[in-house]
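sorry for the late reply, my laptop died twice this morning and i had to redo everyting from scratch. anyway the thing you sent over, i finally got around to it. pasting the sequence first so we're on the same page, its 177 residues, then the predicted structure underneath. double check i copied it right bc i was rushing
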Amino acid sequence: MTSGTTIRGQQLSRPHTHRAGLRTVAVLEALKGCLAMVIAYALVAMRRRDVDFGEAAEHILFFFHINPEHHWSQQVVHAADKMSIPSIAMIWGLALSYAILRFLEGYGLWKQRAWAEWLAIISGCLYLPFEMYKLIRHPNAFHWAILGINILVVFYIAWVRWDEIAAARHAANAVVH
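ok and here's the structure:
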């Protein structure tokens, strides 16, 4: 398969050397989309079974070893207690939108599309400040792992884009000379 870049109306092609890495990131993005859909489905299923969301939030906080007495933990439990059908519908809609975005990004990376690489760089960079904030506030192995994976993905995709642009410039210079 070739990756093409257009410069001054000419299609420049070369073998794509980053297929395996891009496909690995594509699978990771698709898994994030699947996780969002599973969470959305679980919320809807919990609502249909009349689950107490406040109690469920406390169990989740306990599972992740998050202090339930912390101000933000109390806010999460309080918000969970107020879960209503419209708020669940909104969360479900946001999760669906997020999943569609992740699936599109995964598809584009699998097919080695430049737009998906740019999308991966931008969306990955958008998460970094939030992940750093979480790590500073609550340093643990989970937050380190998430931040590390995200940084690796952003740097890798940026390197792929840089390599593609450099190859296109080299090919354009070869055509001109």
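Residues 19-111 form one domain.
thats about all i looked at so far, will dig more tmrw
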